[in-house]
Design a protein that fits this description.
Helix content is 40%, strand content 23%. The protein has 308 residues and is of the alpha+beta class. Strands 1, 3, 4, 6, 9 and 11 form a six-stranded antiparallel sheet that branches. A five-stranded antiparallel sheet has the order 2-5-10-7-8.
Length: 308
């Protein structure tokens, strides 16, 4: 029995539908894998739009265009609603990628596109291609920075490339600065607000710290008054213990004006959680934050590394 191409694509389409709701990367998965998985919306809906045209032949292109936009919006919206109810992340950007992907499947791959005048088809294809490339741009940046991160390790952040600040998260404003630096030519300027627990966290980095003895970082305090900076480390099991304070490593440092060398023993961090050992093979995050400030403060972070 001859297997048709549409049969193979149909199996792939069904598999893609399942993966919208099960499987996929976890919070500690490689960042580029998480981003690439999110881009699956583009490819899935392009495939489904192509198969939809194959399933309903002989309609006009205009009719296909209307129906595909309608169904992509409907099913894309429903899938995001379902995901929000089962503990997965729903996003408007995913719905946009659903629609762009579906239009791409129609305008670039379906046989029906050949019924449209070339000039008119190009007018339709141009914005779709632009939006698809725009959606893929963050993925390419993440891939580049992940490669840089693995090549730099055990340096966690030296801030010599503009992409390195994306490894850090937090509600505070931060940017690469060339005015103050400990090594190289730049550092990360962090503007701490009056919000309680204002700070930043390192989220994307190689997770296995078991072969290293300490984590070291350089912090510059540009003010004439000291600043209490809190520091934390947790592993991937921290969520299982409801993220309680006693299940992670916690320390505080009194930053004097100028550069401050901070160093934390990883052996101490390993024994910090109450009633268990921290999993040094699967470190999930490291954070720097302050308590309630009376006024905004700025610090500069540089040369964050593990020491052998």
């Amino acid at each position: 029995m001859k297997i048709r191409r549409q049969d193979i694509l149909g199996v792939l389409a069904l598999s893609a539908a399942v993966f919208l709701f099960v499987g996929g990367p976890g919070p500690e998965s490689l960042r580029s894998f998480r981003y690439l998985w999110g881009m699956g919306h583009l490819f899935c809906f392009a495939l489904w739009a192509y198969l939809y045209v194959c399933w309903r032949p002989h309609l006009s292109f205009k009719r296909y265009l209307f129906e595909i936009v309608f169904f992509a919006t409907l099913f894309g919206g429903l899938s995001e609603l379902i995901q929000s109810q089962i503990g997965r992340e729903a996003a408007w950007s995913d719905l946009g990628n659903d629609i762009v992907g579906a239009l791409g499947g129609l305008c670039f791959f379906s046989e029906s596109r050949k019924t449209v005048a070339v000039r008119r088809l190009r007018v339709l294809q141009a914005p779709i291609l632009f939006l698809a490339l725009w959606a893929l741009l963050p993925v390419s940046k993440v891939f580049v920075d992940d490669l840089i991160s693995w090549r730099q390790f055990p340096l966690l952040s030296g801030f010599e490339t503009p992409l390195e600040k994306t490894r850090w998260s937090g509600s505070v404003r931060r940017r690469i600065s060339n005015k103050i630096f400990f090594s190289g030519t730049s550092s990360l300027q962090v503007e701490l607000s009056r919000q309680r627990y204002s700070g930043i966290g390192l989220k994307d980095f190689p997770r296995d710290w078991s072969s290293y003895r300490a984590v070291s970082l350089q912090v510059f305090n540009p003010d004439n008054e000291n600043l209490i900076l809190h520091f934390r480390i947790h592993d991937q099991h921290h969520r299982d213990y409801k993220n309680v304070y006693s299940d992670r490593f916690n320390a505080s440092f009194d930053l004097i004006p100028g550069w401050n060398h901070l160093e934390v023993s990883l052996a101490t961090a390993e024994h910090a959680p109450k009633n268990r050992l921290m999993d040094m093979h699967h470190i999930a995050g490291m954070g720097l934050f302050v308590g309630k400030l009376t006024h905004s403060r700025t610090i500069y972070l540089d040369d964050v590394r593990l020491l052998p």
